[in-house]
C-alpha cells in the first residue's frame, strides 16, 4: 500500500460541483414531461375523513388529476426490513392517525398550478381529541417487545444490591424535547414509469431500501425498479427510512401516465420523515466513595405512534460504556397520536445527555473531578457483551482534551469563575456512539486498460464525504494516485450497500472497497509477475508493492512497472466485485470540554469554547472527519440550548414547522471549536483501521454544555432546551 | 398560493388610486407579504409594486431624521447620520432579521409586518386575527411567545417589529397618503389594541400608503439603548425587548422614554414606569420600582409568565448602563 493517500486532509472531490451548481440533486433530474405533485395533509390528528370534494381542484388550470384514498390503487405495506417503519400506508382508507398525514395528491403540469389546486381540495373530518403530551401519558408507559436492537429491558447483575453497596446515590429526572432533522434539501421523489419499469430519482440515504419498499408496495419485481441518488443535501436520518410520499408518488405516476416530481415542503417535512422522539428519563446512579460505579438504573420513556412501537432513543451509553457491575436499562413507550418517530443523527445522544449529566451530579456529590470520575470507571471492554473493543484510546482522549482545554485551571466550585459581565462555567462529558455493525456493502472495481480505476457501490453520499474517502481507500489499496481513481455511487444497478446511517458507511462500504480493490490489485500483480516481458517476471507476488500507479519489488523501487503497461499488455479491463459482508459493531469515543458564559441579568447563555478529542480508529481524511466533529458540536449547541418542535396539546399539530419557529444555531451561536484525533488504527476494522465516526461527535457536547451551565450558575437545568427563562427561574 | 395580478405604480397618487380596489395590496420588499400569501394566510387579487416610488430618501437635519417609507432597513441602519443622531434606531434595526432580509425589507413594510403567532401563520388553525370569530388558539395553547400586557380574551399575539419599539420610544410620526390626502400619525397612536377586533391592527384606512417617518432627534444629553432578548444570538424575533432614551443629570433622571417589545400586541409604552424614574436618583430601588410599575396588571398565561420577570430584568440591565453606573 502506498502511504499518504489515506489520512490526509483532502477536500471533498465533489466540492467544486456542489458550489458551482453542477451537482444534480434528485429534484434537478431532467425527466422529460415531468408533472408536479403536491400533497394535501390532514389538519386533524385523530379521526377519519367523512367527505372529500376534489371537483374545484380537478377543474383548476393545469391539473392532471387529484388522487385520494377513493381513487388510489391498493398498496402493500412494505415490511419493516425495507426501512419502511410506518405500519400503514396513507391514502388507503379514511382513517387519520396523525396530523400532517397525506390525504390527497394533486398532480399538475407546473408546480404553481399544483400548489394552487391543492388549496382547493376540501376535506371534512370527524375528529377525536388527540393525545400528544408525553407527560400526560407516563402512567400508560409499557415496555415494548424486543426490537431489532434487542431487549428494551436490559439487566446486568442486581442493581438493588449495587445500590445497597453504594456510598453515594444520585437520582435525577431529565427530559429532552421532540426534535427534527431539518436537512437543507427536503425529501424528493421523481418517479418515471416506462411500461412496467420504474426509475426513481430520490433524495435518500438508502437506495436499496427504497428499491425494496417500492417493489413490495407496488408489487413489481426488484429488477424493474431502479433508484438513483447521486447527491443528497443532508439527511441526518430523515432520509434513512422509506416514507409514504415515495410510495405514493410512484403510484400516482403510474396512474397519471406521466412522470411525477414531488418535493416535500418544509412544513410537510415535520410530519413526513420522522423525528427524534421526546424523552422522559429517570436515572439512579450509585457509586462507592472512591467514585467506582456500583449501579445504574436508567428508565427512558418515549412516545410511539398508534401503529408502530420502534424506540430510537437507545440506551447503549448506559449499557456499554462504563465499568459497572449492576445495570438496568429500560426503554418504555407511550402511545400517542403522533407521526412515526425514527432515528436522528446520534440516536444515542438523548440517553447520553441524561447519563453524562447525572454523572456530573455524581462528581459533585462525591467532590471528585468529573474527568477523574470517568477515568476511574473506564472500561477496556464493551460492558454489554463483555467483548474487548477493537481498540480504545478514550483515556488518552480525556488526558489530551483536558490538557488542550486547560482543565487543570478549573475551580470546581459553582459560580466561582467570572468575568466583567457574567459567570463562566466549564463542563465536560464523554462522547460515545456505536458505529457500523450493519449488513455492509459490496463494491465493483474496474481497472481500465489505461491503468485507471472505477469503483462503484450502491451507497450514498449525504454530504459527509463518501465520494472522497472511498476514492482515497481505493487509491490506497490499489497503489494508484488519487486522480487515477473514481468512485461512483447512488444507483441500484451497482453492488448493494446498506443505508448511509448508523455511522456504518466507512466500516461497511470502506471494507467492501478494500475487499474488491485487494482482489483487483492481486490480479494485476499476478499478471505482472507472470509476464516474461515484465521487469517483475517471476517475483513472488507477496514481494510486490504498489504505489503511485506502479508495481515494484518491495525494497527495490526502481524495479517497477506501471499499472498502465500491465493493463495495456493484458488488453482488457480487470473487473472484480465484492459481496456485502457485515462489519463488526465499533465504538467510537472521545472527550469533550466546553466553556459557557452566562449573563445572570437576563439568563443568556453563550457557548464560548469547545474542545473535543476523539478516537475514531484511523482517520481516513482529517478534513472530512474534522467537519463531522464541528457539525456535531454545532448541532449539540442547538440540541441543548434551542431546538424543539412544539405540538399544540389540543390540536395535536406541529406549530413550528419551519426554520423560523424551529431554531437551529446561527453562526453567531457557534464559538471556536477545536478538534483533535488520537488517530491510531483499530486492528479489528477491515476498513484500513477506521471505524464509523459520524454520530459520535454530537454526543458528549450536549451534557458538557449543561454541566458547564451548572458550573456557572450552581443550578442544574434538567429539561432541554436550556432557554433563558429556565436560567432566570433557576436563579431567582 | 393563488394567482394574482401585478401592477407597478409610478407615483404615490397613482398607487393610492390603484389601491382603491378592495383586494389590492402594496408590495415593497415582499419579505413578509409573500410568505403570508404562499402560506395561504392572506390572499390578494392584485399586488401594487411601490418600489419605484421616490420614497427612499434618508434626510438628517439638526433636530430630526426623515425616512422615506421605501428606505431599506440596511440603508437606515448603516446611515452615518442616523447612527450619529439616533443610534437607538440603528441598533433596533440591526437587531432584526438578517443582513439579507434587511437589504430587501422596507421601513414602511416593517411597521406593517404581521405577528409571528404560529396559529395566525397556519391558515388552517383557529385564529381570531386571521379569521374573526374562529377563536384564539393561543389562549389555551402554546403561548410562550405571547403577550402578558395589553392583550384581550380574543388575541394575545405580540407585534414583532423591533423598529416600531424604537420608534415608539423616540416618539416618531408616520406620514401617509390616502384618497383623503396626506396626514401624520404619531407612532404611539398608530397601533390598535386587539380588543374585540384583533384583525384591525393599525389606524390606517384601506389603501392608505405610508410615505415616510419623521423622527425627532434625541436630546444630546440623553443616553439610549435597544436591548433584545431572544432564544439565539441573532436572526430571531424578540422574546422581550427594551428601547430606552434616558437623560440623567447629577445622578437624577431628568427624562425617560421607554418602549417594550415582545410583551404586548403593540409596541408597549409604560408612562407609569417612566414616571417612576423621572426626578429620582437612578439607583437600584428606583429601577426596581420602574420595573414593578411596568408589569402592574400583566396577565401571565400558561407558558409566558417568565416574561414578567424577564422584561423587568431587561429594563434593569438597560438602566444599569446609564448615568455612568456601569
Ligand atoms: C426571516 C425573517 C426574520 C425577520 N426578523 C425580524 C426581526 O427580528 N425584527 C423585525 O423587526 N422584523 C423582522 N422581520 C420582518 C421584516 O423586517 C419585515 O418582513 C420587513 O420589514 C417587511 O418589509 P417589506 O418591505 O418586505 O414589506 P412587504 O412584505 O412588502 O409588506 C408588508 C406589508 O406592508 C404593506 N406595505 C409595505 N409598504 C407599505 C407602504 N409604504 N404603505 C402601506 N403599506 C405598505 C404591504 O402591503 C404588506 O401588507 C423578519 C423577516 C423575515 C423574513
Ligand atoms: S393570539 Fe391572536 S394571532 Fe394568535 S391565535 Fe390568538 S387570535 Fe390568532
TrEMBL record, chain A:
<dbReference type="Pfam" id="PF01315">
    <property type="entry name" value="Ald_Xan_dh_C"/>
</dbReference>
<feature type="domain" description="Aldehyde oxidase/xanthine dehydrogenase a/b hammerhead">
    <location>
        <begin position="20"/>
        <end position="129"/>
    </location>
</feature>
<dbReference type="InterPro" id="IPR008274">
    <property type="entry name" value="AldOxase/xan_DH_MoCoBD1"/>
</dbReference>
<dbReference type="InterPro" id="IPR046867">
    <property type="entry name" value="AldOxase/xan_DH_MoCoBD2"/>
</dbReference>
<dbReference type="InterPro" id="IPR036856">
    <property type="entry name" value="Ald_Oxase/Xan_DH_a/b_sf"/>
</dbReference>
<dbReference type="GO" id="GO:0016491">
    <property type="term" value="F:oxidoreductase activity"/>
</dbReference>
<dbReference type="GO" id="GO:0005506">
    <property type="term" value="F:iron ion binding"/>
</dbReference>
<keyword id="KW-0560">Oxidoreductase</keyword>
<dbReference type="Pfam" id="PF02738">
    <property type="entry name" value="MoCoBD_1"/>
</dbReference>
<dbReference type="InterPro" id="IPR000674">
    <property type="entry name" value="Ald_Oxase/Xan_DH_a/b"/>
</dbReference>
<dbReference type="InterPro" id="IPR016208">
    <property type="entry name" value="Ald_Oxase/xanthine_DH-like"/>
</dbReference>
<protein>
    <submittedName>
        <fullName>Carbon-monoxide dehydrogenase large subunit</fullName>
    </submittedName>
</protein>
<dbReference type="InterPro" id="IPR037165">
    <property type="entry name" value="AldOxase/xan_DH_Mopterin-bd_sf"/>
</dbReference>
<dbReference type="Pfam" id="PF20256">
    <property type="entry name" value="MoCoBD_2"/>
</dbReference>
<keyword id="KW-0500">Molybdenum</keyword>
UniProtKB/TrEMBL annotation, chain B:
<dbReference type="InterPro" id="IPR002346">
    <property type="entry name" value="Mopterin_DH_FAD-bd"/>
</dbReference>
<protein>
    <submittedName>
        <fullName>Oxidoreductase</fullName>
    </submittedName>
</protein>
<dbReference type="InterPro" id="IPR005107">
    <property type="entry name" value="CO_DH_flav_C"/>
</dbReference>
<dbReference type="Pfam" id="PF03450">
    <property type="entry name" value="CO_deh_flav_C"/>
</dbReference>
<dbReference type="GO" id="GO:0071949">
    <property type="term" value="F:FAD binding"/>
</dbReference>
<dbReference type="InterPro" id="IPR016166">
    <property type="entry name" value="FAD-bd_PCMH"/>
</dbReference>
<dbReference type="InterPro" id="IPR036318">
    <property type="entry name" value="FAD-bd_PCMH-like_sf"/>
</dbReference>
<dbReference type="GO" id="GO:0016491">
    <property type="term" value="F:oxidoreductase activity"/>
</dbReference>
<dbReference type="Pfam" id="PF00941">
    <property type="entry name" value="FAD_binding_5"/>
</dbReference>
<feature type="domain" description="FAD-binding PCMH-type">
    <location>
        <begin position="1"/>
        <end position="220"/>
    </location>
</feature>
<dbReference type="InterPro" id="IPR016169">
    <property type="entry name" value="FAD-bd_PCMH_sub2"/>
</dbReference>
<dbReference type="InterPro" id="IPR016167">
    <property type="entry name" value="FAD-bd_PCMH_sub1"/>
</dbReference>
<dbReference type="InterPro" id="IPR051312">
    <property type="entry name" value="Diverse_Substr_Oxidored"/>
</dbReference>
<dbReference type="InterPro" id="IPR036683">
    <property type="entry name" value="CO_DH_flav_C_dom_sf"/>
</dbReference>
<keyword id="KW-0560">Oxidoreductase</keyword>
Amino acid at each position: 500500500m502506498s502511504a499518504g493517500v489515506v489520512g490526509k486532509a483532502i477536500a471533498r472531490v465533489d466540492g467544486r460541483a456542489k458550489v458551482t451548481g453542477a451537482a444534480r440533486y434528485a429534484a434537478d433530474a431532467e425527466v422529460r414531461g415531468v408533472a408536479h405533485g403536491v400533497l394535501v395533509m390532514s389538519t386533524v390528528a385523530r379521526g377519519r375523513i367523512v367527505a372529500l370534494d376534489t371537483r374545484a381542484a380537478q377543474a383548476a388550470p393545469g391539473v392532471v388529476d387529484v388522487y385520494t384514498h377513493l381513487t388510489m390503487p391498493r398498496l402493500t405495506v412494505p415490511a419493516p426490513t425495507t426501512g419502511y417503519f410506518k405500519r400503514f400506508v396513507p391514502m388507503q382508507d379514511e382513517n387519520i392517525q396523525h396530523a400532517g398525514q397525506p390525504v390527497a395528491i394533486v398532480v399538475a403540469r407546473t408546480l404553481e398550478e399544483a400548489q394552487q389546486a391543492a388549496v382547493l381540495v376540501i376535506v371534512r373530518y370527524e375528529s377525536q381529541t388527540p393525545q400528544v403530551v408525553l407527560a400526560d401519558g407516563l402512567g400508560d408507559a409499557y415496555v415494548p417487545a424486543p426490537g431489532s436492537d434487542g431487549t428494551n429491558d436490559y439487566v446486568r447483575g442486581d442493581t438493588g444490591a449495587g445500590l445497597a453497596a453504594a456510598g453515594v446515590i444520585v437520582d435525577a429526572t431529565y427530559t429532552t424535547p421532540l426534535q427534527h432533522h431539518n436537512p437543507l434539501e427536503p425529501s424528493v421523489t421523481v418517479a418515471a414509469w416506462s411500461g412496467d419499469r420504474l426509475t426513481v430519482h430520490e433524495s435518500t440515504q438508502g437506495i436499496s431500501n427504497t428499491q425494496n419498499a417500492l417493489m413490495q408496495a407496488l408489487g413489481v419485481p426488484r429488477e424493474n425498479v431502479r433508484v438513483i441518488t447521486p447527491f443528497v443535501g443532508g439527511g441526518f436520518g430523515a432520509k434513512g427510512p422509506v416514507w409514504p410520499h415515495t410510495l405514493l408518488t410512484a403510484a400516482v405516476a403510474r396512474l397519471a401516465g406521466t412522470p411525477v416530481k414531488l418535493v416535500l415542503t418544509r412544513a410537510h417535512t415535520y410530519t413526513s420523515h420522522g423525528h427524534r422522539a421526546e424523552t422522559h428519563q429517570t436515572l439512579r446512579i450509585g457509586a462507592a466513595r472512591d467514585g467506582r460505579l456500583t449501579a445504574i438504573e436508567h428508565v427512558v420513556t418515549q412516545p410511539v405512534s398508534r401503529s408502530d412501537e420502534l424506540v430510537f432513543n437507545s440506551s447503549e451509553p448506559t449499557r456499554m460504556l462504563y465499568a459497572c457491575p449492576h445495570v438496568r436499562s429500560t426503554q418504555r413507550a407511550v402511545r400517542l397520536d403522533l407521526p412515526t418517530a425514527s432515528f436522528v443523527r446520534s440516536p444515542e445522544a438523548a440517553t447520553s445527555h441524561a447519563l453524562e449529566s447525572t454523572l456530573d451530579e455524581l462528581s459533585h456529590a462525591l467532590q471528585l473531578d468529573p474527568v477523574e470520575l470517568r477515568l476511574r470507571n473506564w472500561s477496556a471492554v464493551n460492558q454489554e457483551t463483555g467483548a474487548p473493543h477493537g481498540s480504545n484510546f478514550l483515556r488518552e482522549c480525556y488526558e489530551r482534551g483536558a490538557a488542550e482545554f486547560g482543565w487543570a485551571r478549573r475551580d470546581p466550585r459553582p459560580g466561582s469563575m467570572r468575568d466583567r459581565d457574567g459567570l463562566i462555567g466549564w463542563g465536560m462529558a464523554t462522547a460515545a456512539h456505536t458505529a457500523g455493525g450493519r449488513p455492509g456493502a459490496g463494491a465493483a472495481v474496474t481497472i481500465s486498460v489505461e491503468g485507471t480505476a472505477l469503483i462503484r457501490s450502491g451507497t450514498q453520499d449525504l454530504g459527509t464525504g463518501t465520494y472522497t474517502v472511498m476514492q482515497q481507500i481505493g487509491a490506497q489499496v490499489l497503489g494508484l494516485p488519487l486522480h487515477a481513481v473514481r468512485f461512483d455511487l447512488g444507483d441500484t444497478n451497482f453492488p448493494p450497500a446498506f443505508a448511509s446511517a448508523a455511522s456504518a458507511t466507512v466500516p461497511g462500504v470502506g471494507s467492501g472497497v478494500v475487499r474488491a480493490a485487494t482482489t483487483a490489485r492481486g490480479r494485476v500483480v499476478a499478471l505482472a509477475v507472470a509476464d516474461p516481458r515484465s521487469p517483475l517476471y517471476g517475483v513472488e507476488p507477496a514481494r510486490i508493492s504498489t504505489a503511485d500507479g506502479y508495481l515494484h519489488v518491495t525494497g527495490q523501487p526502481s524495479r517497477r512497472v506501471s499499472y498502465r503497461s500491465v493493463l495495456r499488455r493484458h488488453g482488457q479491463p480487470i473487473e472484480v466485485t465484492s459481496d456485502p459482508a457485515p462489519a463488526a459493531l465499533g465504538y467510537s469515543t472521545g472527550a469533550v470540554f466546553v466553556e459557557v458564559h452566562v449573563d445572570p441579568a437576563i439568563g443568556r447563555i453563550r457557548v464560548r469554547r469547545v474542545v473535543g478529542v476523539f478516537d475514531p480508529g484511523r482517520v481516513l481524511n482529517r478534513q472530512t472527519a474534522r467537519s463531522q466533529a464541528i457539525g456535531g458540536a454545532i448541532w449539540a449547541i442547538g440540541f441543548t440550548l434551542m431546538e424543539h418542535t412544539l405540538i399544540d396539546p389540543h390540536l395535536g399539530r406541529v406549530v413550528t414547522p419551519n426554520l423560523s419557529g424551529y431554531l437551529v444555531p446561527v453562526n453567531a451561536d457557534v464559538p471556536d471549536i477545536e478538534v483533535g484525533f488520537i488517530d491510531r488504527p483499530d486492528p479489528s476494522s477491515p476498513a484500513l483501521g477506521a471505524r464509523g465516526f459520524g454520530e459520535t461527535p454530537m454526543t458528549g457536547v450536549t451534557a458538557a454544555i449543561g454541566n458547564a451551565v451548572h458550573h456557572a450558575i450552581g443550578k442544574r437545568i434538567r429539561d432541554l432546551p436550556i432557554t433563558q427563562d429556565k436560567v432566570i427561574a433557576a436563579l431567582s | 398560493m393563488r394567482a394574482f395580478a401585478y401592477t407597478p405604480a409610478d407615483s404615490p397618487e397613482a398607487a393610492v388610486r390603484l389601491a382603491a380596489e378592495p383586494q389590492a395590496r402594496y408590495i415593497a420588499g415582499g419579505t413578509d407579504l409573500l410568505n403570508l400569501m404562499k402560506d395561504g394566510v392572506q390572499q390578494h387579487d392584485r399586488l401594487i409594486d411601490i418600489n419605484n416610488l421616490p420614497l427612499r430618501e434618508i434626510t438628517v437635519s439638526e433636530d430630526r431624521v426623515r425616512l422615506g417609507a421605501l428606505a431599506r432597513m440596511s440603508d437606515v441602519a448603516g446611515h452615518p447620520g442616523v447612527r450619529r443622531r439616533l443610534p437607538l434606531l440603528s441598533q433596533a434595526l440591526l437587531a432584526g432579521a438578517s443582513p439579507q432580509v434587511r437589504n430587501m425589507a422596507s421601513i414602511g413594510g416593517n411597521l406593517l409586518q404581521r405577528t409571528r403567532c404560529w396559529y395566525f401563520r397556519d391558515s388552517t388553525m383557529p385564529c381570531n386575527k386571521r379569521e374573526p370569530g374562529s377563536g384564539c388558539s393561543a389562549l389555551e395553547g402554546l403561548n410562550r411567545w405571547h403577550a402578558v400586557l395589553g392583550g384581550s380574551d380574543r388575541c394575545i399575539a405580540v407585534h414583532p417589529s423591533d423598529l416600531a419599539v424604537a420608534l415608539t420610544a423616540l416618539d416618531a410620526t408616520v406620514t401617509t397618503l390616502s384618497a383623503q390626502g396626506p396626514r401624520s400619525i404619531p407612532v404611539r397612536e398608530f397601533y390598535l389594541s386587539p380588543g374585540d377586533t384583533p384583525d384591525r391592527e393599525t389606524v390606517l384606512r384601506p389603501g392608505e400608503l405610508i410615505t415616510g417617518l419623521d423622527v425627532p432627534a434625541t436630546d444630546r444629553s440623553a443616553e439610549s439603548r435597544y436591548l433584545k432578548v431572544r432564544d439565539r444570538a441573532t436572526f430571531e424575533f424578540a422574546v422581550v425587548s427594551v428601547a430606552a432614551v434616558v437623560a440623567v443629570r447629577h445622578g437624577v433622571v431628568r427624562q425617560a422614554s421607554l418602549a417594550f417589545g415582545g410583551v404586548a400586541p403593540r409596541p408597549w409604552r409604560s408612562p407609569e414606569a417612566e414616571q417612576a424614574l423621572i426626578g429620582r436618583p437612578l439607583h437600584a430601588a428606583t429601577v426596581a420600582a420602574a420595573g414593578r410599575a411596568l408589569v402592574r396588571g400583566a396577565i401571565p398565561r400558561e407558558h409566558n409568565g417568565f416574561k414578567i420577570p424577564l422584561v423587568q430584568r431587561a429594563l434593569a440591565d438597560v438602566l444599569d448602563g446609564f448615568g455612568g453606573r456601569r
